Every structure is written in structure tokens, then in C-alpha cells.
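User: Here's a chain of 124 residues. Predict its fold as C-alpha cells.
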Amino acid sequence: MKPRTLATLKAGKLPKGEVWPTAQVAGILAAKRTAELVPLCHPIPVSHVGLRATLDADRLVIEAEVRTTAPTGPELEALTAAAIAGLTVYDMCKVVERGIVIRNLYLVSKSGGKSGTWRRRGTP
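Assistant: Prediction complete.
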């Protein structure tokens, strides 16, 4: 996003209200409804959804962590949470800038399920 948009976001001066708390709620709700959004995705009990945002010089980085007690990993729930949180930020910031780009949605790591533990090496 442009520096003006980032500054407005940091200052909390957007007409729709507090951006990050709203994006967090949206991400949590999305994680819990992933099986309704992604065809053939198994519904799983979500026991924890955590979302973090970091502001860099020209971007907002969103990280999502999801835990479950199910025998399958919740990576789709985490990716969905991050994506919807990003879309919510876009929706609330579009009054300042419509050209915001959402990119680089990817899994960093997962554990559990049949495939066990997996960690990404490097940034895509």
C-alpha cells in the first residue's frame, strides 16, 4: 500500500473504524467456516485462532495460527483466516486507496495429521 494509506492505517483515522480488531474478528470467523467456503474441505473443531499484524515500511504482514484437536491439520483454516483478514483490511482502507495489493498467501509450517510436520524453507 502507498505510504499515505499506511500512515492513515497506523494513525487509526479511517472512517469505518478500527481496522485491525475488525480484521481479526473476520479472520477468526473465516477460519471457523472454512469447510463452508472450500469444497471438499473437512469441517474440523477449531480450538484456537491467532492473528498477528506487522507494519513494515510499505506493507502490512498478516500471520494466522490455527490449532485443532482433529486428526487433520488446520492449514486451510489458517490460510483462510489470513486471506479474509487481508480482504477486511482492504475493505476498510479502500476509502484511502483502491490500488492496495494482497499477495503472497502461503503456508509457513504445519504439524499433525497424516503428513506430520512440514516447514517452508525461505520465503516464496
